[in-house]
Design brief:
- The chain is of the alpha+beta class.
- It has one domain (11-107).
- It has one helix spanning 72-107; strands spanning 11-14, 24-28, 34-39, 51-55, 66-69.
- A five-stranded antiparallel β-sheet has the order 1-2-3-4-5, with helices on one face.
- A hairpin with a 5-residue loop joins strand 2 and strand 3 (34-39).
- It is elongated.
Length: 109
């Protein structure tokens, strides 16, 4: 049976307040893995885009894996769009690999 990645709503949770400032959220995927954060770093960010989003933790996303936004909702939207684009690319790569493996197997028959 082929394994597929579920594209489900992402959830954000307040980070443990003992270790993080306010406006700091963990992003959790449908399998309960922490896949990133949305937060206000406070320093080193553009004045007009104080929210930062970053994909990381239990996953590695090559290419663009972070950005800045004017609001938390914009940061959530950018995070979700980047995450779903990466998932679609991963699913395409998995399909191509399965086809390549099937074709390679047929050559040996």
């Amino acid at each position: 049976m082929a394994q597929t990645t579920r594209i489900c709503p992402l959830r954000i949770f307040d980070v443990d307040r003992l270790r993080a400032p306010p406006d700091d959220y963990d992003v959790i995927d449908a399998d309960g893995r922490e896949i990133g954060r949305i937060f206000k770093p406070g320093a080193g960010v553009p004045d007009d885009r104080p929210w930062m989003w970053t994909i990381g933790g239990s996953v590695f996303v090559p290419g663009k894996s972070h950005g800045f936004a004017a609001t938390r909702d914009e940061a959530k939207a950018a995070f979700a769009a980047t995450w779903r684009t990466w998932l679609a690319l991963q699913q395409g790569a998995q399909r191509r690999e399965r086809l390549d493996n099937q074709q390679a197997g047929l050559r040996w028959l």
